[in-house]
Amino acid sequence: MEQIRAEILRLTREYSRQAHAANRPGDQREDAFVAGETTVPYAARTFTEEEVSAGIGSMLDFWLTLGKEGEAFERELASRLGVKRSLLVNSGSSANLLALSALTSHKLPAERRLRPGDEVITCAAGFPTTVTPILQNGAVPVFLDNNPLTANADLSRLEEAYRPGKTKAVMMAHALGNPFELATVKAFCERHGLWLIEDNCDALGSLYFSPGEDGSLSGQPTGSFGDLSTQSFYPPHHLTLGEGGAVSIVREMRLKLIVESLRDWGRDCWCPSGMDDTCRKRFKWQLGELPEGYDHKYTYSHLGYNLKPLDPQAAIGRVQIQRLDAFTAARISNWNTLRAGLDELSEFLDFSLPTHATDWTPEGFTWDGSGHRTAPSWFGFQMLVKPGAPFTHTDLARFLNERKIGTRMFFGGNLVRQPAFVQAKKDNPDAFRVLGPLEGADRIMNSAIFLGVYPGLTPAMLEFMVSSVRDFVKTV
């Protein structure tokens, strides 16, 4: 049997080397790229035959449901982030739903438990599933504006957003891999006794640096600052499992049992799949109004879901996570190539800056006086069309699309302008609260566009992206 398995996996690797050569990291493939004919996606999977072999190997075992590969990947991800535990789920959006829902649990202290009508501070521009779990749990999003140059929350009205007795949490994403101002937000949460959820779905590999007493800078991964953080493994993200995500428990292990319960049907039992009686008292519990001794495996303490991924996905993730440093380095290098190549267009375009940076030069960034710095593992290269430019971001997107260069606008733009949120406000005028006119979020919505920086881009692709943006601006 082992010989058969070994031969299957040998053939699998050989097939993948031939069939998926275009997805190999570091494969330059310059002879296969034809400018204007070959599609340059804004994001794509990057993998080798090792990921394919790992997935097929797990399929041959045919355990399928989350098992030994999942447990190992959860440990490896938690170790990478420097958190207590990571729990795999079926998507980043599900991870956000579980993280926010965990704060509603009756197992938390009453004064910290998130209840219907309580408020969660977030920011207006971004991806909708950073915010929708707040509404789905009956809570009230409180929208801060965005800083267009970082795409993260403008914190100038953060204290104004707080309402004693009503505000219970902050939930924000690290926009396009750019860490938000963690020092300020974390201190705010600690001061007011609030939960902090980091949506780290676009930012795996990013670092936030803080000064020590001796003035030296110490970097810490995003996703390790809050109480909970979330990850996505959808193909455009930093690692891919096809689909998938994770919730990380940064410090408090009581949150692990809550998130796990909500992920696994709401059950009270914490036995891994296929195991019984981990607690040694399976038929000795008396919970709710159930009879004493009712099977703990069928006792439910939460109104839960079933949001687990499959074990073959985790097997793929275990190979992908070994490539994270190389992937991060490629994303940073590609971002820098685009920034240098497009600098001459600064008359018409504003370019993103890392949080705490004040300017870019070919030699590097200059930084503000906070003492903090950031090292984004970029998800995309964002540009904002300046007011008064003779074109719009839609004009640029259409031009690049004609050249088969993939672009995206900044996700949902200003979410309060989206049909679902407009309708929510019509149905309930108190559905959410807004701080100020949201001019920054509107500018992002009306003028921002981003290009890809994923590791599979080649020098020829990057050169074509730069020359195409230059050609467009010269044309108009």
Describe the fold and architecture.
- The chain has 14 helices and 17 strands.
- It is α/β, with parallel strands linked by helices and 476 residues long.
- An eight-stranded mixed β-sheet has the order 1-9-8-5-4-2-3-16, sandwiched between helices. It has a four-stranded antiparallel β-sheet with strand order 10-14-17-15. Strands 7-6-13 form a three-stranded antiparallel β-sheet, with no helix packed on it.
- Helix 3 packs parallel to helix 9 (311-320), helix 4 (92-102) packs across helix 8 (254-263) and helix 10 runs parallel beside helix 14 (459-475).
Features:
single chain; 476 residues; alpha/beta; 8-stranded mixed beta sheet; 4-stranded antiparallel beta sheet; 14 helices; 17 strands; 33% helix
Q: Over all CA atoms, what is the radius of gyration?
A: 23 Å
Task: Name the poorly predicted regions.
Answer: none
Helix count from the secondary structure assignment: 14
> In which range does the helix fraction lie?
25-40%
Spatial arrangement of strands, main beta sheet = 1-9-8-5-4-2-3-16
Identify the overall geometry. Answer: globular
Distance between the ends: 66 Å
